[in-house]
């Protein structure tokens, strides 16, 4: 008995130690790479106009943080991403269910939807620029359109892939069409729809950033392009770091959603990252 | 007082239309009655149309001709007093056991407290106490079957239709669930129509065994002695059992049309 407990404890402490070692290795790797980079910069191995030193990038970040630039532009990008995502996700789910409920309609619309889906949404940016101007709205539309199609297709697939046997079983219980819609079709398709929602979160950010890169006077995309046009590579790097942090935050949200959705889908809870 | 039969099939036929436009007659002139309160097994090889008969009684498909009537004379289907358990698991994966078992009551508008109390009772009855918060993915094959059984019983149907319900389980578990089913049925007054391809299973469970050949042709229709409760081990080695087993096996293997359709599940070799 005590042998089993101590065996479990040993295994647990082994796992803790393993995690510790991995995290330490990550820190060491980061410090070494950045350190070598800084040394190389000090030795003038890089042209600072091409590859700025880590310290120069850090100074930019500190300055932007102190004067509010960082927060101002990040906030704009976050707003565009979130608004675009919400509009796109809700629209995608609503359209997916609406069209999925009418198989004949879905069949008629299929090639047209596929055609629009096939167009890289980035290519629509100049058109949206003409239609909606350079303001925040154009970025929201670009993000929303990107998200909408991903969520729409997943929802439609979900509605189409509802297990007929489940529908039959519930129908035999005496369920009315409304029960079947709300208690079988919607929850069944919802897992597909939410998979689409999950996948689309990073695309909302991509849509917003591309919109900002093409034409804007605010946002992280603007920060990148304005720094680049001023040949301020340290500024570009600093803005990219801000963008990376934002993207990682979004991914953390996606992981959290995944974890909650996986309650009845055991497979999905297995994280690919292994941590 | 004469109790009318639970189910009456009169000259029932079913023709399926193939994708290429051809028609296949799966059932022709099927004619039998199921006595109220009896346990009837339909045995047959794959393609004998036994599942089609069950699907028609349940109301999932309509007969191409003939009628299916119930004790009250009605031919309307599906009926709320008929429960159906298919071989395939149809628990809703996004609901835990409790909410799955409560589902039939939910669609009938029972209140939450009432349906959950009833569901808990049934979960206990089928031996799943403690598993009510688990999701179908977290259940073993035997547990899923028990949950499905509980769900079917939730609306307290007078007639139970079971289509090879234990076919996917290992022999041990199948034995357990067969005993469980008998325990639940005995004294309940419920009518059971049980489809299987396993002659042993039919002889163990039923009051009456109907052997179907292809087209739904009835080859053997035999009443079994009412020797309840039956013991699996005793039943299997009795001379009557062996004779009946032979007769049913003959009926299924000599089916002129079935040889091309698929195998018959024979019992283990008897001593």
Key attributes of the depicted protein:
heterodimer, A: 275 residues, mainly alpha, MetI-like fold, 10 helices, 0% strand, B: 271 residues, alpha/beta, Rossmann fold, 2 domains, six-stranded mixed beta sheet, three-stranded antiparallel beta sheet
State Rg of chain B: 19 Å
Order of helices and strands of chain B: EEEHEEHHHHEHEHEEHH
Indicate the structural class of chain A. mainly alpha
Number of separate domains of chain B: 2
Q: Which band does the percent of strand residues of chain A land in?
A: under 5%
Question: What is the CATH topology assignment of the largest domain in chain A?
Answer: MetI-like fold
Net shape of chain A: flat
Uncertain regions of chain A: pLDDT < 50 for 5+ in a row?
266-275
The total count of helices of chain B amounts to 9
Query: In this structure, how is the largest beta sheet of chain B organized?
Result: 6 strands, mixed
Kindly report the spatial arrangement of strands forming the biggest sheet of chain B.
Answer: 5-6-7-3-8-9
- Please mark out the parts of chain B with pLDDT under 50 across 5 or more consecutive residues, or reply none: 258-271
Order of secondary-structure elements of chain A? HHHHHHHHHH
Q: Looking at CATH, which topology of the largest domain in chain B would you report?
A: Rossmann fold
Rg from Cα of chain A:
24 Å
| Main beta sheet strand tally, sense and closure of chain A | none
Largest protein interface, residues of each chain: A-B, 23 and 23 residues
* CATH class group of the largest domain in chain A: Mainly Alpha
Count, helices of chain A? 10
Determine and state the CATH class of the largest domain in chain B: Alpha Beta
Task: Please tell me about this protein's structure.
The complex is a heterodimer of chains A (about 280) and B (about 270). Chain A has two domains: about 45 residues; about 220 residues, MetI-like fold, CATH 1.10.3720. Helix content of chain A is about 80%, strand content about 0%. Chain A has ten helices and no strands. In chain A, helix 3 packs parallel to helix 6, helix 3 crosses helix 9 and helix 7 packs antiparallel against helix 8. The C terminus of chain A is likely disordered. By secondary structure, chain B is of the alpha/beta class. Chain B has two domains: about 130 residues, 3-Layer(aba) Sandwich (Rossmann fold), CATH 3.40.50.300; about 80 residues, no CATH class. Helix content of chain B is about 35%, strand content about 25%. Chain B contains nine helices and nine strands. In chain B, the strands form two sheets. A six-stranded mixed beta sheet of chain B has the order 5-6-7-3-8-9, with helices on both faces. A three-stranded antiparallel beta sheet of chain B has the order 2-1-4. The longest helix of chain B is centred in the middle third of the chain and has 15 residues. The C terminus of chain B is likely disordered. Chains A and B meet through helix 7 and helix 8 of A and helix 3 of B.
